[in-house]
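Fold in C-alpha cells:
===
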Amino acid sequence: MSRYRLPFLAAAVGASAVLVSPLTNATRGLRRSMGVPPAGFDSPQYRDGSFQNRLPAAVLESGSQGSMAIEFATKGDRGRPAAAVPLVTPDLPAAASDFAATWLGHATVLLEVAGHWVLTDPVWSDRVSPSPTVGPKRNHPVPMNLADLPRLSAVLISHDHYDHLDTATIDALTQQQAMPFVVPLGIGSYLRDWGVPESRIIELDWDQTHSVAVPGKPDLTVTCTEARHFSGRGLFARNKTLWSSWVVAAGTGTKRRSVFFGGDTGYTEAFGGIGTEHGPFDLTVLPIGAYDARWPDIHMNPAEAVQTHLDVRGSLLLPIHWATFDLAFHTWSAPVEWLREEAAEHGVALALPRPGERFTAAAAPTADWWSNAARTTRAS
C-alpha cells in the first residue's frame, strides 16, 4: 500500500509547528496532542507494520512535498470566505427525535437516530493542528458550546487526523459526558494517553459492530466500515491506526433509522457492498471538500460523493468536510456548487444547512446561503 508522507496539510501542520521558535506558544502541548501511536494488530488490514487500504492508493511523487507546501503558503485567501459565514444557534429538542441532524461544521455532526444522540468527529478547537497557534484556523465559530450538548449515546471517530480527532475536545467530552468513544483500531491508544477510562473506549476493525444500550430506547448499533484514506499525527509514523466510515442504526422494521457517515475518504467500490449489506440509509453524511488532483484516492470530490450516496442507497445526502477549514486549493464554495450540479443531474436529494441548522428528512434546507459569503462561485 502507499505510504503517504505529506499528502496534504494534515501532516504539514505538525512540521510547521515544530519549526516555529520555542519562544512562541506554537509548541505548547505539542507532544501530548501528537500522542504515541500503538504497534501491532491482529487485523486483515494490518500488514508489514501498518494499516493498509484494500484498494491501492497513489503516492505523491517524490519531491512534491516541498513544492506543495510553498504553493499552499502562497495561495492567499481563495479557500476562505470573503464575508462572515451565517450560523444558526441549534434549536434542539429536549429529547432526541426519531431522525434529525445538525451540522456543526467540517465533519462534526450531531445525529438523532431513533431517540439517540450521536456525535461524529467532534472538533471544537480553533485550529486543527498539534499547535494552538500554527495550522488551519476556523472560517467560522462552532455554532454551539460544547457544554450545551445533550446527553450523548456515543461519539464516533473516523480517524486520527487533527481535523477529526481533537485532543481538547476529547478532554472536555471525557469530563462532561459519560458516553463511549467508538473508534477504529489503534485510536484507543491516544484516548488512553489522554485519560479516557478504558470502559469508555470501544475499538473496532472494519466489519465489526458494537451495540450501545440506553434505557428506554432501542439499542444503538454502530458498525465500523471500510474507507480509503490514511492516518498519522506525527511527522514520520504513518498508518499506525485504522481509518473508517461508520454505519449508525437503531430500531427494527419500519421503525429502523440508519445513517452512513463517510468520515474522510476517497471513493472506493467497497461502498456498493456497504449499501448491499447495511442500506438503505435515511441519511448519508459524506465529505465533499479538500479534493485535489494530487491526492485523488484519499479525498472524494463532489461527483464521487454523489456516486457514493447512490452506491450505499441513501435517501438524503448531507455534505461535510467543507466550509470550516481551508485544507486544499479549490475556492471556498466550489465543493457545494459542484455538488448541487451533480445532485441535480442524478436526482439526489440534498440537505444544505447552515452550520448549526437542525433539519429533518421532511424539512431539509436547500437554499443557497453561501454565495453572499463566497469570494467567487465555483472554481476548482
Q: What stands out?
A: DSSP finds eight helices and 16 strands in the chain. Residues 1-24 have pLDDT under 50 and may be disordered.
